[in-house]
Amino acid sequence: MSGGWHEEIVIVGGGLAGASAACILADAGRSVLLLERDAQPRHKVCGEFLSIEAQTYLSRLGIDLDGLGASRISRLRLVRKRGATEVSLPFVARGLSRKVLDEALLVQARSRGARIVRNEPVRSISFDRTTARFALAASRPIQADTVFLASGKHDVRGVKRPTANTMGDLIGFKLHYRLAKSQQRALQGCVDVILFSGGYAGLQMIEKDIANLCLVVSRQRFDELGRRWDALIAHMADECPPLTERLQDAQPLFPRPSSIFQIPYGFLHAPDAREPQGLYRLGDQVGVIPSFTGEGMSIALHSGCLAAATYLSHGTASSIFHHRVRSDIGRSIRLASALNRTVRHEAGRHAVFHVSRIWPDAMRYVTSLTRVQEAAVARALAPP
Ligand SMILES: Cc1cc2nc3c(=O)[nH]c(=O)nc-3n(C[C@H](O)[C@H](O)[C@H](O)COP(=O)(O)OP(=O)(O)OC[C@H]3O[C@@H](n4cnc5c(N)ncnc54)[C@H](O)[C@@H]3O)c2cc1C
User: The domain 6-49+95-164+265-341+372-381: what is its CATH number?
Assistant: First the structure.
């Protein structure tokens, strides 16, 4: 890229939030420049569980999950120590790696006319009354009337999230495995959610014969285990023998797991009159839901589509969007955060497991309360 020019809309980040907004804005004939830090598609830390709402958005955006080989998941098995309890999900979920999914959505955005520039980290954003200025790592500065900030977990200087009151002490890991054939069959159609002291994990099949193990663990427990992945896996398997069985003869597909530190679970952007109009915060920049809900991607897609729709009808009046999105996702984030705090203690894990065992519908009920509600999805997808 060269020159210090002026754009109508700059989107920072090409994950699901940024790419979904790019698709809708480009479809409406707007001039869109999307800047993505990574030079290539990569594996992101994510359970890769797609809820029904995420699927609704993806299908509207032209993503063919069957064509991409996504797995189908209709049951949830909660595992704690030697015990397991299983319920059917209230919908058929899908499993697909983020490396495949995010790239497919960026391809959609490009085919609709968005300009996608990779290998272009935004270093900082500053505002004067009507213009945003971007300092870029690889090119000369640019300006824009409107910013869609979709940089996910990564904050950008000048527009950082205030995450002081969130649960920032958790570390996320992800590793793909090729499981033994018998274990692939046993896991087919099911997501295993494993509660262990220090955190929880999700294991499910994604595309082809690949399984994704994704987990969060407290920094304290990880430190106690010598900050070693193999010690963490041994700790989980020791506490939960069903996991030992799953990983018997499994072949890890990356040399080391992907990781992410200081996930600000519970963060919910509070609209602030001092924040510049023309700054739209999307995805993890507007709210971070604890990952066991499997709703982070649907929130990213919801916020991307809703922000684009709001921009098309109200221009730079981003506070309208921030009030709407807060009311759409606030309850889910608060409830999921309370549950997340509960399972951090042995007594809480025990209670959640036993309630689920004697009253399986409780799990289904909680799942429905932590989702983006149908009416909100319909509003975001309504024609402008
Ligand atoms: C452990 C864990 C498990 C999870 N499991 C699930 C699950 O099973 N199901 C689910 O629905 N959700 C899950 N989530 C949540 C989900 O992964 C996120 O909510 C979702 O990825 C947010 O999308 P996003 O587009 O906001 O951000 P991201 O997907 O993180 O995308 C942000 C993009 O911005 C780019 N970027 C960052 N900084 C810059 C910069 N300065 N300049 C330019 N580009 C930049 C990044 O490279 C990236 O491509 C999980 C999260 C965690 C931590």
Answer: 3.50.50.60
